[in-house]
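### Sample
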Amino acid sequence: MSIQIFILGALSEGNCYPYDIKKKIGKHLDQTEARITEGTIYYNFEVLHKKGLIEKIETIQSENRPDKTMYGITDQGRLALEESIYKVFQKFTTIQSLYAALVNLDKVDNQKIAYLIEDIIVKQRKKLDYIDEQKPEEIKVSEDLMDALWLMRDHAYHTIESNITWLEKLLRHVQSRALRH
C-alpha cells in the first residue's frame, strides 16, 4: 500500500507519467533499503486505475518508443489517499511503515494524525512494560540460551525505546503543523 500512497500523493499534486513517479519514489527510497522496479510501479498504476482512484489523462504515441500515458487522481482517489494515510498510522507496525504517509502529511488533518501517534506511543510504552515484566532467569535453560534471551530482550527494549523517542519527535512536528493550519 505504501507505493500506492506515494503514487496517489504525487498525482494529487499534478498529473504525471508513471516513470516520473518512479523517480520521485526513488528519491524517498534512497533513504531506506527498499528498492522499486518499473514493473511494480506499472502494476500499482493498473491496480489504482481499475479501482477508479486514478484516470488516464493523455496517451502520447511516438514511432520508436512505447506509448506514454499521463495519469491524474480522481476525487475517489483523493479520499482513498486520505483514508490510506490514516490507516497506516492506525495499523502501525514499524517506523518504516510510516514513510509513505510522512511525505503526504499536507493531505490530511494533522490533528487527527497527532491523536493516532499518541495512541501508537501508548501502545509502545505498554510493550516496554511487558518486556520489563518478563524475567528470563525464571526459565530453566542453558547458560548460552539464557545469554541469548537477555540479549534479545535488551534489543527489543532499546528498539522500542528508540521508536518512542522518534515518535515523540514526529508528534511534536505534526502538532506544530496542526497549529499552523
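The chain has two domains: 2-98, 109-180. This sample (PadR family transcriptional regulator) is used throughout the tutorial notebook.
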